[in-house]
Write a structure and sequence with these properties.
Distance between the termini: 61 Å
Strand content: under 5%
Radius of gyration: 28 Å
Structural class: mainly alpha
Order of helices and strands: HHHHHHHH
Largest sheet: none
Helix content: over 70%
Shape: rod-shaped
Number of strands: 0
Length: 249
């Protein structure tokens, strides 16, 4: 029985879809959920991180000395990039002052050691901030083509069915072909938010990391030009302690 124009639509398309078409629909649904999850969690995380960073930077620039900063980061576990960077920079400065060079990782002057620690911290946090972006980029670039694949597959089966029925008039062809085009629309609906979300997150990360890199230069200047801290103020992290570091743009 040939479907009437009124019976055409997404529900009819689903009812007529074969295993390949349904697999593509499920894949697109999973991709959409994954992209929206990453977009929302990254956006909320960036907003929280900016607020915490602004509070720490306000405290840092108004602190009377690095001893006060060291006490603060020791009492409040660093949970954002700027406090993490300050924590690792202060620990590196104290460690090199107390222990000197005991292994290759600590070789060089105090300035060299602090520079390596700050760069390592920034690099590690960059990777953390960029986590999930590969998924968003992949979804944004492939979803339209996956939807197009579903359209081609649907048109092929629609034309085969029309040919077998012997009804080749335009009104018989337009409905099934139009239904198949739904897959392309779904692919675009999945890809567009992923691309926009990716661009938004990349821009936010670039701005944060640019500020972080500038802060690292200022922090290094304080540590390298004689602004010492009390060796008892800041405790070194225990062996195996997992203190997340920062990254650079």
């Amino acid at each position: 029985m040939t479907p009437t124009p009124n019976s055409m639509g997404f529900a009819h398309f689903l009812a007529q879809a074969d295993g390949v078409a349904k697999f593509i629909l499920v894949a697109m649904l999973i991709a959409s959920i994954a992209s929206w999850y990453l977009i929302l969690t990254k956006a909320i995380g960036n907003w929280i991180m900016r607020r915490r960073s602004d509070r720490f930077l306000d405290f840092f620039w108004n602190a009377p000395s690095l001893d006060e900063v060291a006490t603060h980061v020791e009492q409040h576990h660093p949970r954002e990039p700027f406090a993490h960077l300050a924590y690792h920079g202060l620990v590196a400065s104290r460690h090199h002052a107390r222990h000197g060079v005991n292994k290759l990782d600590e070789a060089g002057t105090s300035s060299d050691f602090i520079t390596r620690i700050l760069k390592r911290t920034i690099d590690e946090d960059t990777a953390k901030m960029e986590s999930g972006l590969t998924v968003l980029a992949s979804i944004g670039s492939t979803a339209p083509f996956v939807g197009l694949l579903g359209t081609v597959w649907g048109i092929y089966h629609a034309l085969v069915a029309i040919g077998m029925s012997g009804a080749g008039t335009l009104d018989k062809v337009a409905g099934p072909v139009g239904e198949a085009l739904i897959m392309t629309a779904i692919g675009l609906a999945v890809a567009i938010p992923a691309v926009l979300g990716y661009n938004f997150i990349v821009r936010a990360n670039r701005m944060t990391l640019a500020r972080l890199d500038s802060f690292a230069h200022d922090l290094f200047a304080f540590l390298a030009t004689g602004a010492k801290i009390d060796s008892q103020t800041l405790q070194e992290p225990a062996a195996g302690a997992n203190v997340a570091p920062l990254r650079r743009a």
